[in-house]
Specification:
By secondary structure, the chain is α/β, with parallel strands linked by helices. The chain has helices at residues 39-49, 65-75, 139-151, 168-172, 181-191, 197-204, 241-254, 259-273, 286-294; strands spanning 2-6, 10-16, 31-37, 54-61, 79-86, 91-97, 103-108, 129-133, 155-159, 176-180, 207-211, 217-221, 224-228. Helices cover 33% and strands 26% of the residues. The two termini are 31 Å apart.
Length: 296
């Protein structure tokens, strides 16, 4: 199985600060770095580094940030035939990371707002493809693509990040909905249920996985409830951990792994990503994840 990602691609401007600024406060940082990012590109990189065959559809601008934004995609061998250059600035994220690895992020979508479902041709939507999506491109385009994919029996995984309002029939067309604990609370309020995976699955009408940081993750599927603990690490930067989890989970499922095994692999990869600065740049290669999984 291959993976097709439709999503955002950004240049991440990362500021190391002693503490995250409060509203109206300026905090002098200790350092600055520029990395490739964007939730779509991050997840594509994570899946490709884990060994999956990955294609990416999205948009960048015709500016100096485009090359930096796509560097990790190219390095990981992601197929960029569906990446469009548009007359808008490349998406950009400003990320503050404190001494404990916590982050605070502001994003200017730029070219990502021009991503269109039509960039993905019907021939790419097959039963042998996993379509992986996030919420940093227009929700209307995500809806169109999911509807087309579902009609062609393509497996659809949506990471509801950042949380957006999607119609109930669209949720039911998904094979898997992935949320972190905060996104789960937002969706649960909207659906009138509790924010655990089992309740969300019943309310949304699709399988659901909820990640809870150091508390691990849980997934509710037709086979039942699967849980996995987090791997204990000393975090340096947690910025790309969730995207690593999603990409590696998709890669595991594409290889036919059971959900519980794919979740454990995703947890190991996400833990490794927390020990390095940046988002896509911090994501491990398959051999590194294998090494952590093999550690007693």
């Amino acid at each position: 199985m291959s993976i097709l990602v439709f999503g955002s691609v950004n240049a991440d401007l990362v500021f190391s600060v002693p503490r995250l600024p409060a509203p109206g406060e300026t905090v002098l940082g200790k350092g600055f770095a520029q990395f490739p990012g964007g939730k779509g590109a991050n997840q594509a990189v994570a899946a490709a580094r884990d060994g999956a065959a990955v294609a990416f559809a999205g948009c960048v601008g015709r500016d100096g940030l485009a090359g930096a934004a796509t560097a990790a995609l190219r390095e990981a061998g992601v197929d960029l035939a569906r990446l469009a250059e548009v007359a808008a600035p490349t998406g950009c994220a400003s990320i503050c990371v404190d001494a404990e690895g916590r982050n605070q992020i502001a994003v200017a979508p730029g070219a990502n707002a021009l991503a269109r479902a039509a960039q993905v041709e019907d021939a790419a939507l097959t039963p042998a493809t996993i379509l992986l999506l996030q919420m940093e491109v227009p929700a209307a385009e995500i809806a169109l693509l999911v509807q087309r994919a579902a009609a062609r029996f393509t497996r659809c995984i949506l990471n509801l990040a950042p949380p957006g309002d999607l119609p109930a029939d669209l949720l039911r067309a998904l094979h898997l909905l992935v949320l972190n604990e905060h996104e789960a609370v937002v969706l649960a309020r909207r659906l009138g249920c509790t924010p655990d995976a089992a309740a969300l699955r019943l309310a949304a009408g699709c399988d659901v996985a909820v990640t809870r940081g150091a508390a691990g993750a849980e997934a509710a599927t037709a086979a039942g409830l699967a849980t996995t603990p987090a791997f204990p690490v000393r975090p340096i930067d947690t910025t790309g951990a969730g995207d690593t989890w999603c990409g590696v989970l998709a890669a595991g499922l594409a290889r036919g792994m059971p959900m519980a095994d794919a979740m454990r692999r995703a947890a190991a990869a996400a833990a490794l990503a927390c020990t390095r600065p940046g988002a896509a740049a911090a994501m491990p290669w398959a051999a590194e994840t294998d090494g952590l999984l093999a550690t007693p």
